Amino acid sequence: MIDVSSLRRSYTQSGLSEQDLTDDPMELFEKWLKETIDANVYDPNAMVISTADSDANVHSRIVLLKNYDKDSLVFYTNLGSRKAKDIEQNPKVSVLFPWYFLERQVIFTGSCSRLSLSEVVHYFHSRPRDSQLGAWASAQSSKISARSVLEAKFFELKEKFKNKEVPLPSFWGGYRIKFDTVEFWQGRENRLHDRFMYVRKDDGWQVDRLSP
């Protein structure tokens, strides 16, 4: 067994002070997202979304942020997946952007709602064609006997829709996460990290510094 207890390093890249904060959390999020993109971090829009089913069993996985505005985050998925089934039972989710290469993380909490059909159709047809076919080929989260089954289905669909527009699968869609809290975490030396929590109020955002 590998001893991981002594794996540690000091975080010295940056800090986050009250003067760096913005009135709206998405202004700061967008600034950090741009800095992550400019730093050539792989998959800067990758986010870990955690859901819980009706028995409070928690499931986490990575999805890609595909749109956002000042109030919400958007992602797409198979509507038969475990995450979609969890959301049907409990729309509350937590989302983590793990930008650890920059010694940063951002956490959103909020509730999911289904996107409109027009939003889903527009995004689906903007995807690469093979990604569209992949959505058809995979009954996400279901058991399969071998990878060859998945690949055979993909090539079968590739032939079926040859020279045709790939239609939107009825089982594919997206979600909008209306967030209520946003936490920004910046690593600092001696484990004295900077943490700020934005909490949505009727008249705007309340911001508090949290102990690390």
From TrEMBL:
The record's EC number reads 1.4.3.5
Tell me the SUPFAM superfamilies matching this sequence.
FMN-binding split barrel
Instruction: Give the GO biological process terms.
Output: pyridoxine biosynthetic process
In the record's cofactor note, how is the cofactor described as bound?
A: Binds 1 FMN per subunit.
Binding-site positions, FMN: 61-66, 76-77, 82-83, 105, 140-141, 185, 195
Entry's PROSITE patterns? PYRIDOX_OXIDASE
Which InterPro entries does the UniProt record give?
Answer: Pyridox_Oxase (IPR000659), Pyridox_Oxase_CS (IPR019740), Pyridox_Oxase_N (IPR011576), Pyridoxamine_oxidase_dimer_C (IPR019576), Split_barrel_FMN-bd (IPR012349)
Give the signal peptide as a residue range, or say none if absent.
none
First-level EC class: oxidoreductase
Please state every residue range assigned to the domain named Pyridoxamine 5'-phosphate oxidase N-terminal: 33-158
Q: Which residues bind substrate?
A: 8-11, 66, 123, 127, 131, 191-193
| Catalytic activity as recorded in UniProt | pyridoxine 5'-phosphate + O2 = pyridoxal 5'-phosphate + H2O2; pyridoxamine 5'-phosphate + O2 + H2O = pyridoxal 5'-phosphate + H2O2 + NH4(+)
The UniProt keywords, alphabetically, are: Flavoprotein, FMN, Oxidoreductase, Pyridoxine biosynthesis
Member of which family? Belongs to the pyridoxamine 5'-phosphate oxidase family.
Assembly mode: Homodimer.
Q: What does this protein do?
A: Catalyzes the oxidation of either pyridoxine 5'-phosphate (PNP) or pyridoxamine 5'-phosphate (PMP) into pyridoxal 5'-phosphate (PLP).
Protein's name according to its UniProt entry: Pyridoxine/pyridoxamine 5'-phosphate oxidase
Organism, by scientific name, is Anaerobiospirillum thomasii
| Record lineage | Bacteria, Pseudomonadati, Pseudomonadota, Gammaproteobacteria, Aeromonadales
